[in-house]
Amino acid sequence: MNKIFTILLLSISLYISAQAPANYYTSAVGSTEATLKTKLCAIVGPHTQRTYANLWTDFKTTDKRPDGKVCDIYSNTTNYVFITNQCGNYSGEGSCYNREHSFPKSWFGISSGQEDSAPMGTDLFHLYPSDGYVNGRRGNDPFGEVGTTTYTSNNSYSKLGTCSFPGYTGQVFEPADSLKGDLARSYFYMVTAYDDKVSTWVSPQLASNQYPALSTWSVALFLKWNAQDPVGPKERNRNNAIYSLQKNRNPFIDHPELAEYIWGAKKGELWSLTAGVKELKIEFSISPNPAQNELNITSDEPDLSYTIFNLNGQALSHSALTISHSIPVSQLSNGMYLLQLSADKRKSIQKFIINANQE
Question: What homologous superfamily is domain 279-354 in, according to CATH?
Answer without folding.
Answer: Immunoglobulins (2.60.40.10)
